[in-house]
Write a structure and sequence with these properties.
The chain has 210 residues and is of the alpha/beta class. Helix content is 43%, strand content 15%. The strands form two sheets. Strands 5-4-3-2-1-8 form a six-stranded parallel beta sheet, sandwiched between helices. A two-stranded parallel sheet has the order 6-7. The protein binds 3-phosphoglyceric acid.
């Protein structure tokens, strides 16, 4: 494995569940990260789906040094570079393209691309990628589908996200080709909007018991 993949593996192994965060208002970024840290969750993914996303990465990187921030929903090279500059320590995409892989190859920031078909896996495997986001997990066809990849791809590991909740999380985590899972259920949009930080801390604690 190259050094980016080795560092990515170390990160993903550290925490079985990574919260996928959608931050609409910048003022919520630091209290949200602190609420998760109080609940024992250090590795977080902030999706670039809102205006406030990049500034949220920056402000958390500046004010919550314990947090290890990944930038998610990266679908082009310029987002990759902006997220790195803002302080993201790893980059996540629902897929990958030629340009995105080239950008990742020229960077020291670990990249977790998305792949859900054998052809996609082989394409990225040819470029030495061994860890993939598996999105949207529940909608694709679920656990049996991913289980079928164990035999043909013995050294590939996945991080399923999309539609997973507290009840289904243990089923995904039990698969030998799952290194970690992700989801928004640990810090749902509504709780963030309502600034329910204690509830988010509680959900984080429950999540780490999975
Ligand atoms: C992601 O980008 O990983 C998903 O949007 C998370 O999916 P969820 O909101 O259904 O957990």
């Amino acid at each position: 494995m190259n050094s980016n993949q080795t560092r990515l593996a170390a990160l993903l192994q550290k925490q079985p569940v990574i919260p996928v965060l959608i931050i609409e208002e910048l003022c919520n970024a630091v209290p949200l990260a602190q609420a998760l840290i109080r609940g024992g969750i250090k590795i977080i993914e902030i999706t670039l789906r809102t205006q406030a996303a990049l500034d949220s990465i920056k402000i958390i990187a500046d004010h919550v040094p314990e947090a290890i921030i990944g930038a998610g929903t990266i679908i082009n090279p310029s987002q990759f570079i902006s997220a790195e500059k803002a302080g993201a320590k790893f980059i996540v995409s629902p897929g990958f393209g030629k340009n995105l892989l080239e950008t990742a190859d020229n960077s020291n920031t670990p990249f977790l691309p998305g792949a859900i078909t054998p052809t996609e896996i082989i394409k990225a495997y040819e470029k030495n990628y061994k860890f993939f986001k598996f999105f949207p997990a529940e909608e694709i066809g679920s656990i049996a589908y991913l289980k079928a990849f164990i035999s043909p791809f013995p050294d590939i590991k996945f991080c399923p996200t999309g539609g997973i909740n507290r009840k289904t999380a243990p089923l995904w985590l039990a698969l030998p080709n799952v290194i970690c899972i992700g989801g928004s259920w640990i810090a749902p949009k509504k709780l963030i909007q309502e600034k329910q930080w204690d509830k988010i801390t509680k959900l984080a604690k429950q999540t780490l018991q999975l």
